[in-house]
Amino acid sequence: MVDVLAHESELLGLVKEYLDFAEFEDTLKTFLKECKIKGKPLSKSTCGSLRDPKSLKFQRDLLAAFDSGDQKVFFRLWEEHIPRPIRDGDSLAQKLEFYLHIHFAIYLLKHSAGRPDKEDLDERISYFKTFLETKGAALSQTTEFLPFYALPFVPNPMAHPSFKELFQDSWTSELKLKLEKFLALMFKASNTPKLLTLYVSFSKWRPLLQQLHQQLVEAERRSMTYLKRYNRIQADYHNLIGVTAELVDSLEATVSGKMITPEYLQSVCVRLFSNQMRQSLAHSVDFTRPGTASTMLRASLAPVKLKDVPLLPSLDYEKLKKDLILGSDRLKAFLLQALRWRLTTSHPGEQRETVLQAYISNDLLDCHSHSQRSVLQLLQSKSEVVRQYTARLINAFASLAEGRRYLAQSTKVLRMLEERLKEEDKDVITRENVLGALQKFSLRRPLQTAMIQDGLIFWLIDILKEPDCLSDYTLEYSVALLMNLCLRSAGKNMCAKVAGLVLKVLSDLLGHENHEIQPYVNGALYSILSIPSIREEARAMGMEDILRCFIKEGNAEMIRQIEFIIKQLNAGPFTARIYHLSFESFTCARKTHRLSSRDLSYDELIQPQLGELSGEKLLTTEYLGIMTNTGKARRRGTAGVQWGGPEPLRRPVTPGGHRTGYPA
Fold first, then answer.
1. What is the residue-wise DSSP string for 366-418?
2. Which residues in 416-575 belong to E strands, given as ranges?
3. Tell me, what's the pLDDT at 664?
4. DSSP letter string over 126-173?
5. Tell me, what is an example of a GO biological process annotation in this record (predicted)?
6. DSSP letter at 455?
7. In terms of Cα–Cα distance, which of 222, 226, 224, 204 is closest to 214?
């Protein structure tokens, strides 16, 4: 407000100047009257008249010289006050000057009562010839002016039919009118108001500003991509060390005499360390002592102490949720995008956990709201962008254990996602994100039960009948979701109702070119074959022969898994029941704190226009709240058993977690 008051006088002066320039006389009078009533001063620097007294005097003198035929005075004023770029470059000015030279060349012939003064006339004709040979030569190829190049050489131009029009009074009047219009236009342009000048200047720079803005947006997008890549590599590194530590534990546990020598164990462990550590470790660490190798490996997991990551500013969530419900579709999309970015680009650890806890404690998605209008209902928005961005935000929530716990407190979210999954046919990305969220929901037992009861298995089987019509993401997450649901007794019994169709779909998927789905297909088959009726159906359709065909073509891991499936297929009722119980008893899900890069790698549908806020800048500018963020101790889940053996998957997993060695 202070800045506005400081510049108000100048702004009012600019408005007054423009109204005067555009000749809004009545509007200007009303404006000045209202400024006077309100006591608003107008800046003197911009309130002067646009009609410069000097320019007015020049115009009067020029027109007087035109009327009196004073050639020398006229062209002296013309060259002094009309800028050279206009005289030499403007076609209108060039044509006008040509006709003005004709006017002064024949002036004595038109206005002399008797015979004109020969010396004066010859001087004028000579001046005109010089003009034709110099500046006027540029128009010699123009049809309009070509006849006039003969004028200086005609003895009696007044009698010549080609020049008869020049000696009529109407021709002189029209020429004077053209001259007056030219002068008015030129001096009006030279007195262009500052407001118009500012606008024209901004219009010229706008494309460059938009280009720079687009480059900034692209740089921010690349920065986000690199941050995700860094986080993924860092997590993969820790996963690798963790797996190695478990491997070393297993090796140490199986050491009995000559089975694994300490020298072999030493060579394996030394190879896992960086080059800088190899020599010192090889000479200083006694790997024959029990537990030494795994202890050293776990020591390498200790995080390097980096500089403290600051907590993000708190937000006004009441205002945020109000605008998410009542704002325009474009504002809703930008807010959903910014909230998702805040979660996905935050630094893993305390910063991300604080962001997530703030979302949950303020019930950002209205999971606990009983209002008729809630943020969750944006999933049903008519705007494709709003639907997609809502699904992407929910998928980001579902990627984190605390986020899943928040979303799973009520089946309302699950029901809305299932409805959107079955109805969404316009936007593939929306459906993929809804499917991804549901797949992560299937890591939680109560939600598994609800999905099975809602018949989601039948929907999955139906879309998997034509896997080539699905994107890789949809295919992979559909099969993984199906496997997770088939690990439950209720899911297996549901499959038993359409055993033939389920077995056909799964056997077809065994040979699919997307090898990422093979562990889930194998896990689903292994699980449902614990049901006698499904085993009978499988035997009847020659499932063993089909499986043995893949043994010939598959890799070592695939072969071992298929061998387990064949054993399950040929198992008796008692053996299969033991397997069935052992699978059901292990339902604990490992907590994951990672955000899958595949869930976050979609392009953005909207880009901010010039001057439009987006991302963290939008949140901290328009929705900054009271600082309530406090650091919280990070809760760690108990380490689960990692899957890396030859058997088919027996626990609920999510594709992102399975590939990194963590079945969720």
1. -TT--SSS-GGGGGG-S-HHHHHHHHHHHHHHHTSHHHHHHHTTSHHHHHHHH
2. none
3. 38
4. HHHHHHHHTGGGGGTT-TTTGGGGGGGG-S-GGG-GGGGGGGSHHHHH
5. cilium assembly
6. T
7. 222
CA dist., res. 310 & res. 627, Å (int): 13
Do 341 and 615 contact (CB within 8 A), yes or no?
yes
Q: Where are the alpha helices (DSSP H) in 22-117?
A: 25-37, 53-68, 71-81, 84-89, 91-105, 107-111
pLDDT tens-digit map of 270-309: 445 444 344 444 444 444 454 555 555 555 555 545 556 7
Residue 271: partners with Cβ closer than 8 Å, 6 or more residues away: 278
Cα–Cα distance, 202 to 209 (Å, whole number): 9
- Closest among 488, 471, 478, 453 to 584, alpha carbons compared: 488
Q: What is the DSSP letter of 634?
A: P
Distance CA(489)–CA(344), nearest Å, equals 35
615/224 Cα distance (integer angstroms): 12
Residues of the chain with pLDDT under 70: 1-6, 43-54, 113, 188-192, 243, 246-247, 249-253, 255-308, 426-427, 553-554, 572-602, 627-647, 649-651, 653, 656-664
| pLDDT at 573 (0 to 100) | 63
Residue type, 549: C
Q: For the purposes of burial, counting CB atoms within 10 Å of the CB of 223, is it exposed (0-12), middle (13-18) or buried (19 or more)?
A: exposed
Q: Count CB atoms within 10 A of the CB of residue 309.
A: 14
388-424 as b/e: b if 16+ CB within 10 A? bbbbbbbbbbbbbbbbbebbbeebbbbebbbebbeeb
Sequence letter at residue 153: F
Q: What is the pLDDT of residues 405-451, one digit of tens each?
A: 999 887 888 999 999 888 887 668 888 999 999 999 898 888 999 99
Instruction: Give CA–CA dist 140/162, Å, rounded.
Output: 17
Place of tokens 């320039």: 21
- Whole-angstrom Cα distance, residue 214 to residue 207? 10
CA distance 372 to 538: 49
DSSP one-letter code for 41: P
pLDDT at 576: 52
Q: What is the pLDDT of residue 533?
A: 92
At 581-629, the pLDDT tens digits run: 333 333 333 334 455 555 555 678 888 888 888 889 999 999 988 765 5
Q: Which residue has the tokens 């194998």?
A: 522
- Alpha-carbon gap, residue 396 to 407, rounded angstroms: 11
* Burial zone of 328 (CB within 10 Å; 0-12 exposed, 13-18 middle, 19+ buried): exposed
